[in-house]
Amino acid sequence: MSKLEELATLITPKTYQITPKQALLITKTLQISDDEFLRLLAKFGLDRAYAPISGFHVGSAAVTVEGAYFIGNNMEFLGLPLSAAIHSEQFLISNVLGNRGTILKTVAITHSPCGHCRQFF
Fold first, then answer.
1. What is the pLDDT of residues 65-112, one digit of tens each?
2. Is 89 a catalytic residue?
3. Vertex 15 angle, CA 68 and 4, to 5°
4. Residue, of 20 and 81, whose pLDDT is higher
5. From CA 74, how far away is CA 58, in angstroms rounded?
């Protein structure tokens, strides 16, 4: 079983925020570093992406200075132009702010950011 598959058994499909305490338990259980955990969470977000128009899936994850982790993914909407899509990085930042996260320490993204997202950050 891969580390990503193991991670999927430890967090629910609807999880988009992981507390510092949960993160510590998961990294110890999987025997991985904080950086590897962050990369795995970005890949976990990739699996949640919804891209019925472009077929281009992107996942992202961030950790705050307090040690809280957040997950993001892109979303496209059938019947709307791609300009209405939510980029993974936008989803991630909205998730952090909506859950009262503070200063980002590190961000992981499964693909190079587009020009829009480079400006967004």
1. 999 999 999 999 999 988 899 999 999 999 999 998 889 999 999 998
2. yes
3. 90
4. 20
5. 6
Q: How far apart are the first and last CA of the chain?
A: 35
Structure tokens at 78: 């059938």
Active-site choice (36, 66, 76, 89): 89
The overall average pLDDT reported for the chain is 92
For residue 39, give both structure tokens: 């990369």
- Nearest partner of 57 among 7, 94, 91, 18, judged by Cα: 91
Assess contact for 62 and 44: CB atoms under 8 A: no
What phi and psi values does residue 25 have, to the nearest 5 degrees?
A: -65, -45
Q: How far is CA 6 from the centre of its chain?
A: 17
* Rg over CA atoms, the chain: 14
Pick the closest to residue 85 from 94, 73, 76 (CA basis): 76
CB 63 within 8 Å of CB 104: yes
For β-strands 104-109 and 59-64, DSSP reports them as antiparallel
